[in-house]
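To: structure desk
From: M.T.
Subject: fold request, one chain
Message: Could you run this one when you get a chance? Sequence is below, nothing fancy, just the single chain.
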Amino acid sequence: RSRARLDRLSAQLGSLDPTAVLSRGYAMVLRADESSVVSAAAQLRPDDRLTLQFAVDRAGVRVESVGPGEPGDEVASP
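Reply: Done. Structure tokens follow.
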């Protein structure tokens, strides 16, 4: 009984692990200096430098434009 509960709690904890989320194809967006996580486009300005953290690697990027939109919308180039 205790073992089953421990297994269940371990699975719940694993599902919250950021690297587990990243391994499903998501990326974490950080300021280039990695001082903070970016959670909304409203936090960004053109030319901001960012780091995209993937499951096993990362990429440096620069913001070209910021605007309203829904997932899947095209982002207009400047």
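Reply (cont.): Residues 2-62 form one domain. Let me know if you need anything else for the meeting.
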